[in-house]
Amino acid sequence: xxxxxxxxxxxxxxxxxxxxxxxxxxxxxxxxxxxxxxxxxxxxxxxxxxxxxxxxxxxxxxxxxxxxxxxxxxxxxxxxxxxxxxxxxxxx
Length: 92
Known about the structure:
The chain is an alpha+beta fold. The chain has a single domain (about 5-85), classed as 3-Layer(aba) Sandwich (Aminopeptidase). Helices cover about 25% and strands about 35% of the residues. It is built from two helices and five strands. Strands 1-2-3-4-5 form a five-stranded mixed β-sheet. Strand 3 (about 20-30) and strand 4 (about 35-40) form a beta hairpin. The longest helix has 16 residues, at about 50-65. The protein is globular. Keywords: Transferase. Pfam families: Acetyltransf_CG. One of its GO terms (molecular function) is transferase activity. This is N-acetyltransferase. InterPro entries: Acyl_CoA_acyltransferase (IPR016181), Gcn5-rel_NAT (IPR045057), GNAT_YJDJ (IPR031165).
């Protein structure tokens, strides 16, 4: 089960709060497509799986909203490649 993420539409990013810090994924919506341009975790959370949990939440959100995903960010692209259960969400 994925952790709840929030959609900060003002900043155009999905966010996951972990231990008082925020892991985020910048995005741009283009019709039925969600372009993920950048994923960032604070240095103290790197290697903890926090960014992966965020990505799981982003993909769950995309699926529930019927969106296709374009992972512009190399981290997001690699994460999706490693999690084949989300391959059907890739645009194109």
